[in-house]
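Re: the request from the purification team.
They wanted to know what the chain is likely to look like in 3D before they choose a buffer screen. I agreed to run a prediction and write the result into the notebook, where they can find it.
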Amino acid sequence: MRDEYGESLAGASILVIDDEPGMRNFLTKILTPRCKRVEQAGSAMEASDALDRNHFDLVILDNIMPGKTGLDWLREQGKVGLFSDAILITAYADLETAIEALRVGVADFVLKPFRANQILNAVARALDRKILRRDNSLLKHELSVEGGTARGRLLGNSIPINNVREMLTRLAPMPTPVLFTGASGTGKEVAARTLHAMSDRADKPFVAVNCGAISQSKCAEDLFGVINEDRQGRDGLFLLADGGVLFLDEIAQMPEKMQAALLRVLEDQRIRPVGAERDIPLNLRFFFATNADLPAAVAKGTFRADLYHRINVVNIDMPPLKDRSEDIVELAALFMGQFSKTLALPDLDLDDDTLLKISRYDWPGNVRELRNMIERSVILGAFPEEFAGGGQVTGSRAIETLDLVTKRHILNVLDACDGNRAEASRRLGVSRKTVDRKCASWGM
């Protein structure tokens, strides 16, 4: 049964701050069954200590407390580093207090005495707004970065891609960091998103960061967050991804200064926003990707050796498309259907001749190059000359007919063996006469 106050409470961590034990216990009693974590603090000092230990999505605090008002405490925490939203509760309401509460960034203002449903509604509204801000920030980030469209599935049934799937299945339930390597266009981000979708963090954010594209001058602010001129905290990408996965692409291009900062985050699972005096604990799983030779970068001195050993716990090397020749036809057919639909243009016939040419090409740009070729062909209404065919078999028959599948496979193996039929027959597990007979039937 869904809670009437929404689903945002279920994953929330809340700190209740009040000097009256009865009020603390009342708030804790109504919040605990609905929230992930609820803690109490009986004073401003206890509350500060709690924030030093843990990060909270929301703080609920009384304004009138011994020694320091709730608003004074919020102003003080803004200077140290407060990245939680706040709800102020008070029995003494006046216009001046309300205005000051807005100035220090209070999310809501609840008057005592209040009923359980009033505070629960206020908490739900505050958390919904916080989630909406986070989602908007993540959407803006996704739209601004190259590669934000990497949403595809991990396609194909070749042995290399099935080996990748098997490894992803084994890693899915673990918190282990994963390093994805391989040439550009081999699907490193697609594999990372697939692993995220298989894990217990699937309903949490997946935040992709291109380390080669982040501004050197604003790198720390963008990643770790910052205390702005109004002493309000602005979340960085690490905190926006909290609870989910942070995917650091092109990790070899990360600035040297940030490499040291990242190493500290990986070891401590804590960040310190720019201008803050307090570390913020994180709950993150890290994925990394690169098309560079990291051991060579370490030897050259452009990548820290200690960081390399920290991120290289499990390495998944994505196979190039030329080693997945069995998958090329399936990918080409998928892309053809996608672009025909999204561009509202007629698709092109993938006849047996075209499919043979496509499957025998090396694709140095890997899946990305194949995808781009299909998109360009749909727009222009014809395949490039090197892939144009005049075959008589089209559609699913061209893709699935056993004789054509066998032909493409044998010729791909022959290409891999530089035309050596003896070696090709050995790899195929058939006699040399079988290969010769097949080639003869194809006029080769």
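For the purification team: The longest helix spans residues 116-144.
Please add any questions underneath this entry.
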